[in-house]
Amino acid sequence: MRYFSYLIITFFSSILLLELSLRLFDSNCYSILPIYFEKKHSTFLKNQNICVKYTGHPKSIYITNELGFRINIKNETNNKNFLLIGDSQALGYGVNIEDHFLYKYLNKKNSNNLEIMAAPHNDLKSIQAFSINNTLNYNSYEKVYVMLNLAMDIDRFFFGWRENWNISNTYNELQLSKYFRIYPYLKIIYLKFKKYHFTIRPAINPYLDYASDDEVEVLFNQIVNKYLNFFDTNNIKKYEFIIIAPAWYIDNNQISKFKNFYSEKEYLDLKKNISYYNRTMQNHIKFLEKIFIDKNLNHNIIKNIKKEDEDLFQINNYHLSKYGHEQIANSF
Fold first, then answer.
1. Are 246 and 151 in contact (CB under 8 A)?
2. HSE toward the beta carbon, residue 46, CA cutoff 13 A
């Protein structure tokens, strides 16, 4: 009985120590990205100036407007507003908006505002739900940029939108995390014990491994047409597609980061076949580029950047680092 009491005391003392440590080192920051589901779409907490800091990511600031879009601090001299739609890569996960590749590109010559409607694992279904549940004049923007993530779009095309897939936080949980900072970490441990499905598959689409070139082209056409239908439904006239070539997302550094998510055989096969995946993904990008050209669609496919010695991606995932955003901005 005494041993059990010591165990309980040790457990709660450890929890208290961790809670105090989090408050000491990041007293004003969320330990999770404060995004939740609202009426079948994902959104940030609205009208907030939010600091976020958690394991593997640098401290970053997210300023949101009344719609939950990420925005920069608007300057009255700014003359044009732009909107970017997409997933966590479009969001600028873990970097300040001033370091975001599109913000840097748009502000090379003139001062412009950027609003970002994006969230981790965001897809077209979520974006459509937002458009139904909110009043937004897309043509009030100088241009609407749509950033495609082929891995995400292919997943959604085959499986559809799975509610609470990876974004499992509720509004109330986000409020709780303000006061109980360790809560998100305990939840992650709980979900891992439940073998919760975390999607970590940089650039690897098993649907395409055995697909013919004609099948890939048909699939990409269908995905692009879904976005074109969205534009037509919402009367969006000024838009441009952005693609960050997914071949970037698979290199030896990235594979090593995700070793624990693969079986030993899967990991060894991936290491052995990395050159194959790079070739096939680069080939798929050519199909997508052909579709854009044939349909006369504005697009920007970022294929070639200068890597140098720094990693384009953050420490423990495939989201672009500050350096990666800088390299892409210079490649537009």
1. yes
2. 7
Q: List strands edge to edge, sheet with 299-302.
A: 49-52, 60-64, 70-71, 112-118, 80-86, 143-148, 239-244, 299-302
Residue 199 has pLDDT above 50, yes or no: no
Furthest-apart CA pair in the chain: how many Å?
Answer: 76
State the pLDDT at residue 205: 56
Distance of CA 295 to the CA centre of its chain: 27
Q: Scanning the structure block, which residue is given the tokens 């939950």?
A: 68
Cβ contact 282:308 at 8 Å: no
Number of residues assigned to the chain: 332
Residues 105-121 have pLDDT tens digits of: 999 888 899 999 998 87
Q: What is the pTM assigned to this prediction?
A: 0.84
Would you state the pLDDT for residue 50? 87
Two tokens, residue 136: 């937004």
d(CA 95, CA 322): 6
**CATH fold of the domain at 81-165+179-329:** Rossmann fold (3.40.50)
What distance in Å separates the CA atoms of residue 199 and residue 17, rounded to the nearest whole number?
31
> How far is 285 from 245, CA to CA, in rounded Å?
7
Judged against a pLDDT cut of 80, whether residue 243 lies above it is answered with yes
pLDDT of residue 203: 45
Q: Show the CA angle centred on residue 149, arms to residues 314 and 42, nearest 5°.
A: 85
Return the domain boundaries, the chain: 81-165+179-329
Tokens encoding 52: 């976020």
Instruction: Find the angle CA(45)-CA(86)-CA(278) to the nearest 5 degrees.
Output: 135
The residue written with tokens 């009043």 in the block is 135
* pLDDT above 90: residue 78: no
- Tokens 């995004």 correspond to what residue? 35
Which comes out higher in pLDDT, residue 152 or 301? Answer: 301
d(CA 305, CA 312): 10
Give yes or no for a contact between 297 and 241, defined as CB atoms under 8 angstroms apart. yes
Cα distance between residue 181 and residue 31, in whole Å: 7
CB 85 within 8 A of CB 147: yes
